[in-house]
Amino acid sequence: MPSLYRASKSLKSHRIPFNLFHINPNFRRLDSTAYLNPIFGWTQCAFFASQFREDPSIDLNQFPSDRIRNFSIIAHVDHGKSTLADRLLELTATIRKGHGQPQYLDKLQVERERGITVKAQTATMFHTHKYLGTDTKFLLNLIDTPGHVDFSYEVSRSLAACQGVLLVVDAAQGVQAQTVANFYLAFEANLTVIPVINKIDQPTADPDRVKEQLKSIFDLDPNEALLTSAKTGLGLEQVLPAVIERIPHPPGNSSSPLRMLLLDSYYDEYKGVICHVAVVDGTLRKGDKISSAATGQSYEVLDVGIMHPELTQTGVLLTGQVGYVVSGMRSTKEARVGDTLYQTKSIVEPLPGFKPVKHMVFSGLYPADGSDFEALSNAIERLTCNDASVSVTKESSSALGLGFRCGFLGLLHMDVFHQRLEQEHGAHVISTVPTVPYIFEYSDDSKVHVQNPAMLPSNPKNRVTACWEPTVIATIIFPSEYVGAIITLCSERRGEQLEYSFIDSQRALMKYRLPLREIVVDFYNELKSLTSGYASFDYEEAEYQASDLVKLDILLNAQPVDAMATIVHRSKAQRVGRELVDKLKKFIDRQMFEITIQAALGSKIIARETVSAMRKNVLAKCYGGDVTRKKKLLEKQKEGKKRMKRVGSVDIPQEAFHELLKGS
Amino acid sequence: MMAFRSAFTPLLTSAFPTRTTSGTLSLSTFANSLTEHCTQTVRQNVSLLDLCKLPPASAYVHLPFCRKRCHYCDFPIIALGSSSDHHHDDPRISSYVETLCREIMATNSTPSSCPPLQTVFLGGGTPSLVPPRLVSSVLDALSSKFGVCGNAEISMEMDPGTFNAAAMKELMGLGVNRVSLGVQSFQDELLKCCGRAHGVDEIFEAVEIVKSCGVENWSLDLISSLPHQTPAMWEESLHLTIQAQPTHVSVYDLQVEQDTKFGFLYTPGEFPLPSENQSAELYKMASRMLSNAGYEHYEISSYGKTGYRCRHNTTYWKNKPFYAFGLGSASYIGGVRFSRPRRLREYTNYVQALENGVADHTQSEGIVEPKDLAMDVVMLSLRTADGLDLKSFREAFGDSILLSIFEAYRPYLESGLVICLDEQRRNVAADEVMSNEKLAYLRLSDPDGFLLSNELISVAFAVICP
Ligand SMILES: Nc1nc2c(ncn2[C@@H]2O[C@H](COP(=O)(O)OP(=O)(O)OP(=O)(O)O)[C@@H](O)[C@H]2O)c(=O)[nH]1
Ligand SMILES: [Mg+2]
């Protein structure tokens, strides 16, 4: 491809801000259109674009289904999934040992900073194993998944491309709440489970106890458990053989028409939409025409390859293989996760796909620091291309102006989304107190689905006949001495106990039905601090329950601040109102008049504070020489005011909004 | 005003012998009454947009010498050291004054269109450390370059303990007719804490000298909100001030500036500085006591007996142009504010460049943005009791901006921090403001509005320049 190579060279000299070209001469930019297309600028999330490459030594035709194993690594948070993935990638020489950072697949800045996996990542490896007596080269597809409950949706999606899992359990901590949750995801999907007891190098490791737990909770054969240390490398050699021997090959039919499952998609500034797919039946080749079962649209396959772990062109993907496809989709909206892609003109039965994402919490996002709506809108648009699990609709607030109502999988997801908006897209946001979706019913038989408490009338015309709130079934695993504390916590949170059992002699497992609202904010922190960090917690959504809910308004000098309205259980209104009012008092500066801060239910005031009026601020003399200086000072003061949000004539600093987020 | 002028005219005869002999004095007196008349018309006819483009009739002269730096001061000063009490021969002073005079002479001015100066302000520093013969050469330079009106206000800042009756007389002979006496406080412990070079005894001596020499128009300058200052101390200072019967009192609220000793030691609002509330109380006490003693609170930090407002400072607050000469001083000519270098060497180079014709900022066609000008006008006029002249503001900057300011001020009009006045300077009730046809002025109330001037002015800024 000489012409393209030239293009890449000129590109390099023009605007490529990285130096991969110097490291590996095989790295080639193959998309000349990128250079010709000045519309897309560079952003941090373009890291994949830098990593497109060709590897002529890879011939996927060598790997029929029976030489393929697809597996996910699943576990509780921090039990070592990503570290184990590192070791396996090194073992197969997919990445070079000692090169790159630990948790190689955690590429996002948020992931690196927080040390957690947020997005499932796929990597294809090749491994030679003595199979049925002969050295056989296998294609192994590994998916590292997030452990945190908010991202369990990523886990379920990953499992759809797998026939087995490595269920990683920390040898010291033992089975934890997400271990249970993730095990059941795999179990229900009929996948082979290989238990991996990890971190056996730790002094407190107790693999035997973990084996007992595996037996008693999951009915897994303790003898099947692998003992490893992803840190020291101990026991790692058994992992891939177990994967190859125990996990079945993908079941698809290579002679059937092409069917592939769309697992994930993201936007690359150079290539456009990149889809991750699992080829279930048939073969996919570059140049094929494919169609989407969901939209009916058809595309030409412009590029196809595997994640090795960088995108590596192969020109083909065979039955059972997992890889990427570039097909000229313009936006990730066209790439519906869970969709079936098939050969245009062929007739296929669509794959089952995924349950739609369920948004647990909603919050308003507004431009901060006087940055404009357009900029925020662009940033959100671009980020949702890489995180389709967020729902976005426009809304407006009298206090904050134009913004968006966004739905998230949980609070951590919301946090991560904010952070990515700021880090990857340079947006500055104010977000409103998160709320869960409620349903209100009125005497005229009307029904309101509330994602934004401000939309709910404070003094409704029609009587409220019923309110419904979402609940979850929570699983809590903890050392049994904390039983009392946990029962108290859950009943304070309006929980209903469903199950109470012991997973071994020291650890208890409880299941509670809890209102979602009660767990979204600080439940987990509280739980951790009550149990010195020893409790783990997971939840799954459950049905709505009738509940006595009220809208709590915050008023500043008698004017409601729409962005601060919340919906609370009547029994909590007084306390929440008091807390909000106290917090605001700390963050609202004195102004030239007295400010009354009130919390109200309808027209009833339940908490009140005042911020006394400012008496004096800097009174410099002002003569000829001082004019410029004085003016600068006043302009600065003016700019400070501009950063504030205003309700009536009261200026509210942005910090106040941020502060309200912290637990309420 | 008339009485004051005629009383001082004879003194000028001796002050500017060269001019008398050439017969310009009578002319300039005539010109002056003309200008007085003109100023009236100026107020009515010259738009605020053009006011700053008129040739200046005021000059500020910076005489930066001090014995030592006060702990709150971040001015461009030159500390001479307190050991040498004989500054008369200090070559640092004479060479500075020479440079200063060169600056004055090198300043671009077109004599035909240039009116004689109506106010001169010798500020510092401690100008009273400059020997009278050197002050004389400065005034000579000014009068030969621009002319000085017969009834010009010539003010000089003087510190207790730096001058005697003879010097005072000599200065009066040169035309100095207003003294601004840097008293700051009537408590020795506070003076000491501020690093002032004088004590309370010297204050009484200085007042005595000023009065016995017959300086009729003089200001006593105080600072409030000093560290460790109690309300009782402040009350005492105000009492003694009133007893001294100056025609004018300046009350500065202490500003803790970053690169000063105070800035290093103290945090505003925290002990030993008074809290925001205490400091507001001190301000109110001054306003109450001085008003009761017959002083008009005509500007945030200025009080004057009837007819004794500082004419020079009024130039600033009316946003009229003015010259400035000397180290670190700032001029406002042709709509352009220009600050001279704050360091002696750079200042000397600047004067050299000015003489060589390569540093003429004053003629630089500074394009004056109406918004900037409007902010200046608002900022400066709202510091005064006269307030913002609505008619001229509207004429210069339009109706809509004024309406927006009123809108933004509505809560403060209602709470009384901002006041509207009619032609006769009668208060207009807040609820009548929007309908009243005869609104003429907008001002901040005394003392509550003045206390919040920064806040209120920045509200107007946000309207003018969103
Ligand atoms: N001592 C010891 N530490 C380990 C081992 N494996 C992982 N760790 C450490 O455990 C921490 C968490 O490891 P990760 O690999 O990020 O865990 P994870 O399961 O991917 O975490 P999430 O993706 O956030 O759910 C890191 O500090 C690792 O260095 C091990 O075998 N022994
Ligand atoms: Mg991880």
UniProtKB/TrEMBL annotation, chain A:
Subcellular location(s) per record: Mitochondrion inner membrane
Signal sequence span is none
Q: Where does GTP bind?
A: 75-82, 144-148, 198-201
EC numbers, comma separated: 3.6.5.n1
Q: Name one Pfam family in it.
A: GTP_EFTU_D2
Question: So which domain of life are we looking at?
Answer: Eukaryota
The job of this chain, per UniProt, is described as: Promotes mitochondrial protein synthesis. May act as a fidelity factor of the translation reaction, by catalyzing a one-codon backward translocation of tRNAs on improperly translocated ribosomes. Binds to mitochondrial ribosomes in a GTP-dependent manner.
Query: Cross-referenced NCBIfam families, in alphabetical order?
Result: lepA, small_GTP
Q: Which PANTHER family match?
A: TRANSLATION FACTOR GUF1, MITOCHONDRIAL, TRANSLATION FACTOR GUF1-RELATED
This chain's protein is named Translation factor GUF1 homolog, mitochondrial
Species of the source: Perilla frutescens var. hirtella
The lineage is: Eukaryota, Viridiplantae, Streptophyta, Embryophyta, Tracheophyta
UniProtKB/TrEMBL annotation, chain B:
Q: Name one GO cellular component term.
A: cytoplasm
InterPro entries, sorted: Coproporphyrinogen-III_oxidase (IPR034505), Elp3/MiaA/NifB-like_rSAM (IPR006638), HemN_C (IPR010723), HemW-like (IPR004559), rSAM (IPR007197), rSAM_horseshoe (IPR023404), rSAM_sf (IPR058240)
Extract one GO molecular function annotation from the record. Answer: coproporphyrinogen oxidase activity
Membrane spanning residue stretches? none
Task: Cite the PROSITE patterns for this sequence.
Answer: RADICAL_SAM (PS51918)
Using the record's annotation, list all stretches that form the Radical SAM core domain: 51-296
Q: What does this protein do?
A: May be a heme chaperone, appears to bind heme. Homologous bacterial proteins do not have oxygen-independent coproporphyrinogen-III oxidase activity. Binds 1 [4Fe-4S] cluster. The cluster is coordinated with 3 cysteines and an exchangeable S-adenosyl-L-methionine.
Tell me which family the UniProt entry assigns to this protein. Belongs to the anaerobic coproporphyrinogen-III oxidase family. HemW subfamily.
Q: Which PANTHER family match?
A: COPROPORPHYRINIGEN III OXIDASE, RADICAL S-ADENOSYL METHIONINE DOMAIN-CONTAINING PROTEIN 1, MITOCHONDRIAL
Q: What is this protein called?
A: Radical S-adenosyl methionine domain-containing protein 1, mitochondrial
Protein's organism: Perilla frutescens var. hirtella
